[in-house]
Amino acid sequence: MTLRRFLLASVLVGVIAGGAAGGIRSFTGGDETVPPPSPSPTATVAPTPVDETPLVVAQRFADAWERADAPAMYALVDGRTRAGLPLATFAAAYDSFRQEAAVTVIAVSVSGEDGQGVTFHVRLETSSFGRLEYATAVPFVALQEGFTRIAWTPSVIHPALTHSSQVRGEVQRPARGAIYDRNGEPLAITLDVRMIGLDRSRVFDEDTVTAAFVSFGFEEEEVAAAFASSLGQRQRVPLGIVSDSRVEEAARFVEAVPGAVLWFEERRVHPLGPAAAHVVGYTREYTAEEIAARPDAILRPGDRLGAVGIEAAMNGVLAGRTGARLVVTGGGEDVVLFERAYVAGADVHTTLDASLLRAAHAGLAGMRGAAVVLDARTNAILALNSSPSFDPNDFELGNERALTDVTESEDDPLNDRATQGLYSAGSTFKIVTGAAGLAEGLFTPQDRLFCGATWDGLDPPRRNWEGERGPLTIAEGLMRSCNPVFYEIALTLYNETPGALSDMARAFGFGAETGVDGLYEDSGLVPDAAWKQSVRNAPWYPGDAVNLGIGQGDLLLTPLQLANGYSAFLAGELRTPTILAGAPPTVLHPLPLAPEHAAHLRHGLELVTSTRGTAGWVFADAGYGDFGGKSGTAEEAEGQAHVLFVAYSPREAPAVLAAVVFDVADEGRRVAAPLARDLILAALDGGDGDGEEESAP
Predict the structure, then answer these.
(1) 420 three-state secondary structure
(2) Tell me: the pLDDT tens digits for 260-310?
(3) Is 590 helix (H, G, I), strand (E, B) or coil?
(4) Domains detected in the chain
């Protein structure tokens, strides 16, 4: 094939395909960010001084190449080549190369000596193939007039190009994988959704259009935010997703309202909305700085990554990797200039249960708090909720009004209280105190400690929350949550085995991240003498130990740690929770507790839910007898108190465990235990638990 026929063919391809087929081909249909083709050039061959050398000519050509000045480059080509190569064809060859290689910046330098070995050193910054660098020789022709001109061939563009070859680029962008619950219900999925919004360039009466959108179901503030959007005046501003049930209504609405528009758009959708917002998370756009810092990732403005939750922790799996290939083809064996392997976005299957997530979200009822549900056998997380919550779809849609409300709320709905909220354990910690006293041999299951109205083991005396109960075993102390029983154990541990109580707390997993894959969490705090000396330059006093004995003082843990600690107690070993399907828990260590001591403490937890226990009104008295659990109320430094409850069922072979925390005790006191109970019942009824189901009387 002659050079002329080759280049004319390239021009025809560009014209017929409108620049798209001749540009980079994306298997996903996305447009690449590349400079537009140069305008049709006009040939103007300027006279050249006789004393121009090959090096000077090459430098002028390189400078013109950098600024995409095809006429100036063409003027430096020898006359014989120009006679068979129109300027438009010459320019089209450079435009085609630039588009196929997705060139955004080009730098060309020249080396060599006049008359021999002149070379172009080319560096290309591309939007799809990273940085490309190569060198190509520059051939010259000496004319009779003494002028030197470039004997141009396609190899001047790239050394691999010939008269019969061309550069072709392909980009394959993966779709983001979905996130599923344990039953295959989607928790996050990428879909082509029908959007409704504004084209403000077509609006002549803003008040009328606003009223129409309000009548369709949007808030006036949402419409006002859309009108005030920072997007271009002719750009579509999304207001929301149109459900399938409202398609016909939306079509009539758009036809009747000037400026209202419908279109399809690929969006990340979170079907459970606020019910799974914290644990599943949401995505965000890459910033310009992040795109610039990762040139080899082939990122474009508008590309998204996981921001929080599983979306962030598993982003590498969900997002896959964009594949790209730039080759010189048509001249025999392809010459690969750049290749990056394509990796499809993979789905992530979790242990979460969508129905339990909905139930926990409804039960928390917008009050500040959290709920965690575990499979007590496998330590799999079935539900993990924080309240108040937010709708992750607002982040996907860029709903400015909703995002402002969320970020400015005093209730801090973006805070994941389940994994990063820090709470004193209150009386839920008493099982740890009892375990330490038994494990150290300082107490036995048969010992009885006096539960008085006050405890005078330290000065000043401390009051019990419900008055005198007489001598109680440790199990009975759990049953009535008697503070004096656990004050006495904690003080004895302080005097006889310093540090043992804090060590037992760590054995339960407190004071360290649980190690769950796929979530970000806080480590909490287990205070002891070394910590206090280091942080406060003060000794560890008996009062510190006594406060710790009832879960007060400086002890801090997350609801996930609380649930995992009780799961460790039931299993006899500390394990990492799991949230990714098929990932077994890692056993960290056995719990340092003899079987007879564990049985005594477990009996105490089951007494709590009996008619004699502090939670009997929620369980045994209401007909739910096959449960164990423990309540807790903890005062905070500012005088506020929060309430906690942990429960499990069935007693003989615990299958499900739930931990519930409400930040404000006055709101959650009568709700925490019933919610924990109901979540367990829902899990046993709807899951694969093999425990005995119970029904309300």
Answers:
(1) coil
(2) 999 898 889 999 999 999 999 999 999 999 988 887 788 888 899 999 999
(3) strand
(4) 3-162 (3.10.450.100), 179-349 (3.90.1310), 356-686 (3.40.710.10)
CB 307 within 8 A of CB 281: yes
Contact of 282 with 398, CB cutoff 8 Å: no
Tokens 């992750």 sit at which residue? Answer: 392
Who's near 613: CB < 8 A, 6+ residues apart? 479, 480, 607, 619, 620
Residue 600 burial (CB count, 10 A): 22
Euclidean distance between the first and final Cα of the chain, in Å? 89
The stretches in the chain having pLDDT less than 50 are 1-38, 40, 42-48, 50, 688-697
Widest CA span of the chain, in angstroms? Answer: 120
Confirm if 627 and 683 have CB atoms less than 8 A apart.
no
Per DSSP, the residues of 331-363 read SSS-EEEEEE--B----EEBS--HHHHHHHHHH
Whole-angstrom distance, CA of residue 7 vs CA of residue 154: 9
pTM of the complete model: 0.81
CA 23 – CA 99 distance, rounded (Å)? 5
Q: Which residues sit opposite 659 in a β-bridge?
A: 372, 646
- Amino acid present at 501: L
φ/ψ of 668, rounded to 5, equals -100, -5
Strand partners, 375: 656
Sign of torsion over alpha carbons 683, 687, 688, 694: positive
Residues 6+ apart with CB under 8 A from 83: none
The pair of structure tokens assigned to 449 is: 């400690």
Nearest Cα neighbor of 95 from 25, 159, 164, 10 is: 10
